[in-house]
Amino acid sequence: MPKGSEKWTEYRSESIIAGLLKSGVVLAGAVVLAGGLLFLHRYGTTLPDYRVFRGEPSDLRSLQGILGDVAGFHSRGIIQLGLLVLIATPVSRVAFSIFMFLEHRDHLYVMITLFVLVLLLYSLFGVTG
Fold first, then answer.
1. What is the model's pLDDT at position 4?
2. Burial 83-103 (b: 16+ CB within 10 A, else e)
3. Per-residue confidence (pLDDT) for residue 1, from 0 to 100
4. pLDDT value at residue 109
């Protein structure tokens, strides 16, 4: 890419997307690793009781609960936050692509990518069980 060029080039766009994906995965891995190490430090010697099934705690089912657990330095909340970062990584790539296509003035791809982003967000937040 020539120096001083302010236009979005295909190379620049691909480089930003690659960096976004790499940094998201590395950050998510680091957060999960930190939470896992904390979990092992606190509960690594505890023997599990497989006779009783305990499902996911209710505080790990909402963003507010997860952030509360992270603030309280609870290992499961930290692990869950890492998983959320991992899920958010490709979603942020799609969101970035919208701006890239807008810069290229490619309105068809802007609309297609917006549709994909809406589907992703709906599948994450809109489906209730």
1. 47
2. ebbbeebeeeebbbbbebbee
3. 42
4. 93
Residue with tokens 């979990």: 39
pTM: predicted TM-score of the whole model, two decimal places: 0.80
Q: Does residue 91 contact residue 20 with C-beta atoms inside 8 Å?
A: no
Please answer whether residues 119 and 58 qualify as being in contact, where contact means their C-beta atoms are separated by less than 8 angstroms: no
Please give the C-alpha separations between residue 34 and each of 39, 72, 77, 101, in angstroms, as whole numbers.
9, 14, 11, 36
* Cβ contact 110:98 at 8 Å: yes
Tell me: pLDDT of 44 over 70: yes
Question: Whole-angstrom Cα distance, residue 55 to residue 20?
Answer: 33
In which residue are the tokens 């023997």 written? 47
Handedness of CA 97, 98, 100, 106 (dihedral sign): positive
Residues 6+ positions from 106 with CB-CB distance below 8 Å? none
Classify the C-alpha dihedral 30-34-35-37 as positive or negative. positive
CA gap 67, 78 in Å, rounded: 8
- The maximal CA–CA distance of the chain, rounded, in angstroms, is 66
Single out the residue of 103, 101, 81 nearest to residue 24, CA to CA: 81
